Backbone:
């Protein structure tokens, strides 16, 4: 493909050389550049790709896209100066792969909590309805029936378009993807044509990356600002930021809620460990998921599916068959009737939602033991908040490691302990080793007790000092409960 065609829709400020040259492939990692490639110099949070232009040239790049021209520009190489290389990369990736999003009904899900559940269950629902579909999620990437490992909530632009092209070639009609605030801010979704956007909720998260909550909210809003007229914008108006998302969008505006009047409304009739009985727009449906937060997720799924062309009766029937997503309120019951719940809750709001859900289904004759940690190299301000929630809403709380990354896990736990009120100190234990923390929770549990293991959910590793070790919360708790039962 010619560089000229690849650059279509990018915001070009200056060109040195000719764009009438053939390009082998696009790369933004200088280590992967080969003969005949175009190198896009991205300014990242950790490093600046402009510093790697000489390396890319040495490895055979015939063109460079950058935000500022280097001092030395060999005549044999084309240099293209653009306003934003991250935005340029997104359009270039879409053009290179033949704009596959145009041939799919692509739906993006954004918000603090619920993205994975909504995207994954929409994929599951449409596959059950007989359609070929794709999924881009935190847990995994699905190209119809083929599964690929996920590395980011919202991958880089090249990866997104490569997967979308694979979905198109596999005959997929729909794709459901999580859209993170990082992905929006870094222009990874530019150049994609969405058929719909869903807003779940907004709470305390990623303030290590965004300078303020207002900036975090406004970045989410940008996604809806860019939706086309042909798309739908579906928002949760029980969340105080819900209507903000719709302020400037030209897409079809739709709302859903449990507490207020909306286009799509649901009422929880029953909430048990075995499932939820919901009334959605005057029709009842029994689903296998539990908790108020899942009632919101299911309502969003219903509204999106109907707006994508499925009949309401068929949607309700398919919803009743949906299975919970890996690491999202997954539970196991031991032979001694101890219930262990594993959930990805890693924000204050998500943790509170899970604990409220447990509160709504427990009898109060059992104790609730919560095992929770906070990630290293991430927003430190949420640590004491999460600790306060865990201790005030549980009978016992065990603080432990999550993914400490480069931080000392004891320092993370110390930050958490600052949120524990004096009256809750007696029910708090600190155990740095996560496996040992889960084991102690299981040893403390009596028949009928509930253990919540929060924070990592579907993750099957623990990241410590730059190394990822195998670790799976559900597998670990199952093994320990079995050992204790012998």
Residues:
């Amino acid at each position: 493909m010619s560089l000229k065609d690849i650059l279509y829709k990018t915001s070009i400020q200056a060109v040195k050389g000719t764009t009438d040259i053939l390009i082998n492939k696009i790369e933004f990692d200088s280590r992967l550049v080969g003969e005949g490639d175009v190198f896009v110099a991205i300014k990242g949070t950790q490093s600046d790709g402009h510093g790697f232009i000489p390396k890319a040239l040495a490895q055979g790049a015939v063109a460079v896209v950058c935000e500022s021209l280097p001092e030395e520009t060999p005549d044999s190489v084309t240099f293209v100066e653009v306003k934003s290389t991250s935005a340029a990369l997104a359009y270039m990736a879409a053009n290179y792969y033949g704009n596959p999003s145009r041939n799919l009904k692509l739906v993006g899900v954004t918000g603090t909590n619920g993205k994975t559940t909504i995207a994954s269950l929409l994929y599951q629902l449409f596959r059950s309805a007989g359609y070929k579909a794709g999924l881009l999620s935190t847990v995994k990437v699905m190209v119809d029936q083929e599964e690929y490992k996920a590395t980011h909530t919202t991958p880089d632009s090249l990866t997104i378009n490569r997967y979308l092209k694979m979905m198109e070639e596999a005959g997929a009609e729909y794709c459901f993807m999580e859209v993170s605030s990082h992905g929006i801010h870094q222009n990874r979704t530019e150049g994609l044509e969405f058929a719909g956007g869903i807003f779940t909720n907004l709470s305390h998260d990623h303030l290590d990356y965004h300078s303020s909550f207002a900036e975090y909210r406004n970045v989410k809003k940008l996604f809806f600002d860019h939706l086309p007229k042909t798309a739908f914008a579906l928002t949760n108006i029980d969340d105080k930021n819900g209507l903000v998302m719709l302020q400037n969008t030209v897409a079809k505006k739709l709302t859903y809620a449990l507490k207020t009047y909306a286009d799509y409304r649901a009422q929880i009739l029953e909430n048990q460990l075995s499932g939820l009985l919901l009334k959605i727009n005057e029709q009842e449906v029994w689903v296998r998921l539990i908790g108020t937060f899942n009632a919101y997720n299911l309502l969003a799924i219903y509204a999106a599916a109907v707006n994508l062309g499925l009949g309401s009766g068929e949607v309700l029937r398919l919803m009743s068959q949906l299975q919970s997503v890996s690491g999202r309120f997954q539970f196991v019951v031991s032979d001694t009737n101890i219930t262990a719940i594993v959930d990805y809750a890693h924000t204050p709001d998500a943790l509170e939602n899970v604990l409220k859900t447990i509160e709504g289904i427990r009898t109060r004759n059992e104790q609730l033991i919560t095992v929770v940690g906070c990630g290293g190299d991430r927003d430190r301000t949420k640590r004491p908040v999460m600790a306060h929630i865990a201790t005030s809403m549980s009978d016992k709380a065990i603080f432990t490691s999550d993914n400490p990354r480069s931080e000392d896990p004891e320092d993370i736990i110390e930050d958490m302990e600052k949120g524990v009120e004096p009256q809750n100190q007696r029910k708090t234990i600190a155990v740095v080793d996560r496996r040992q923390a889960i084991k102690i929770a299981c040893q403390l549990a009596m028949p009928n007790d509930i253990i919540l293991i929060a924070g990592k959910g579907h993750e099957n590793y623990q990241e410590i000092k730059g190394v990822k070790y195998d670790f799976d919360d559900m597998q670990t708790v199952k093994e320990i409960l079995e050992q204790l039962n012998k």
Notes: The first helix runs from residue 3 to 6. The longest strand covers residues 264-272. The chain has a mean pLDDT of 94.
